[in-house]
Amino acid sequence: MHKKTESLLYSTGGLVAALIALVLLNLVLGAARGRIDLTQGRLYTLSEGTRAVLAKLESPVKIRLYFSQSDIPLPIKAYGRRVEDLLAEFKQAGRGKVTVEKLDPQPDSDAEDSATLEGVEAQVTPSGDKFYLGASISYADQKLALPALAPDREPLLEYDLTRAIARAAATAKPVIGVMSALPVFGMPPSPMTGGQPMEPQVFIGELRRDYTVKRVGLDAQKIDDDIKVLLVIHPRGIGEQAQYALDQFVLRGGKLIAFLDPSAYFDQLGQMGGMGGGGTPSSLDRLLKAWGLAFDSGKVVLDMRYLTGAGARTLPTLLSLNDNAFDPHDIATARLGSLLMPFAGAFTGKPVEGLSEAVLMKSSAYSQLVDSFAATTQGEAAIRAFKPSGTEYPLAVRLTGKFKTAFPEGRPKDEDKGEKKAGKASEAKPEAAQLKESAGENAVVLVGDSDFINDGAAVQIQEIFGQRIVIPRNGNIAFAQALVDQFAGDPALIKLRGRASAARPFTVIRDMEAKAQQAYLGKIKELEDNLGQTQEKLNALQKGKGQGAGAILTAEQQTELENFRRKAAETRLALKEVRRELRADSEALQFWTKVLNIALMPLLVTLAGIGLAILRRRRTPAI
């Protein structure tokens, strides 16, 4: 009896001690916010790029989240909670450099006035109610707003927040260089423009809002040191001297975005110069060859899946791309929706050792390469000789890694100006030593089209009461801006990719419902077929009878009708069985899903505890 009492006391004391230890451990871990993210897509884990941006902060960043707590639709409220959770992760990763303040902007409140002043916009529910879900980021004297955090941009939420923090922390606007054979900066009045000045392209105007934009000539010998990102837009006729300048720019760490083109439709100046009828070509052949890629400036992509138009106006080389053509995980191509690419070229080849390639945009396999001089052919003539290649051609790629020079022999000689340069050699400044390889990893983006950022393909411009209104037609400019934003911001932004969505539809249940629906439709079709066959037999029997038979049914007709009625009744029973099985399978699947999500972990802990107790009892020697 004494031994039993002692054993009971030991067991009770052990349970109390275990309970106290568990509570203390929970308090310690709760204070440290330590946890393991087991969600699909690691929803609650910040990327290395975000952590790198936060680690560089020299002063505190203040994030104000404006989130209406009033009656709003449940999906929006659930998304707002996920925004709060993500901001909590930012705060923890910031290690004291990130503070988060939550405000509830009720109507006519100070919080609502603050939201308006900081650029956070009111949103409207389908029922017409107004609510706020936005944020402002403050860093020293800099302040940026995320006016509306929309659920459809949830995969880009971490990127949007990290980019805003990186922008606010920047001491000055980054300098963006633009090199182009096109009049992207506009043109003064001329006979070609009807005596009217040509406005700068909308894309250039958008860049000027966030960056300092500097022109770079196609004959540049060197890219200025203050230029962080260089956009090369249709470099028609570029020489080796300028390509050498681009080569050294990339090797010193500059970010290059090149829009090449096998047939630049909007290059009016090149066409007037006698360079072709449909469009003019451009490439960076020397650089591409050194990187292991090729770009055939005499071929355009014809794609029967992404063609534009119909009938006689079908234009299969005017590509109307959708989400299937984009990398869904890359920040630059996520959530684009649609993109229009006129007469694009394709990149082929394999990157050299040390470089890796990510395809941002591609054609379908139902495509082929055709001669660029026939790019504008429409209708039947355009597809008469079509033969699908089975290849998904890369239309836009990103190269990352350590780049090596495309000019191992040094700067190319300028034959046209060789004598003049030789005569002024004593006056020329000594040239910096040539770079042979980039010191660290860098990135270059190549796009096989330049027309897509032209106003004619990207936007619709209207004059309303003397005011110029710009309406995007597609995601063209958004794509180009996303590329620049990635490169012009903190280098860690390049490594950020889209997050997984928290929405987890029951795809298995949906598949079951779809299969059941197919069975349902199959039964309906069977019923209709039976009805048609019976009616045909009835008609045949009626024709075989003499006139005046009226509506009297023969024994054969009566038998057919009875068979039909029997089959109809059996089919209806089968339909009921399908619906019953569907409900049973769906309910069972939902039940077991809840069991796995809710009860699995406690069950595992319980079983582990029981197993541990049994093991200890077996090891304890009997007294």
As an assembly, this protein is single chain
Number of strands: 22
Number of domains: 4
Q: Characterize the main sheet.
A: 7 strands, mixed
Outline the structure in words.
There is one protein chain. With 623 residues, the chain is an alpha/beta fold. The chain folds into four domains: 1-32; 48-166, Glutaredoxin (3-Layer(aba) Sandwich), CATH 3.40.30.10; 175-296 and 344-363 and 392-410 and 436-495, Rossmann fold, CATH 3.40.50; 507-533 and 565-619, no CATH class. It is 39% helix and 19% strand. A seven-stranded mixed β-sheet has the order 7-6-8-9-20-19-17, with helices on both faces. Strands 1, 2, 3, 4 and 5 form a five-stranded mixed β-sheet that branches. A two-stranded antiparallel sheet has the order 10-11. α14 runs antiparallel to α15 (555-619). The longest helix is centred in the last third of the chain and has 65 residues, at 555-619. The radius of gyration is 34 Å and the shape is globular. Mean pLDDT is 80; it is low at 417-428 and 546-550.
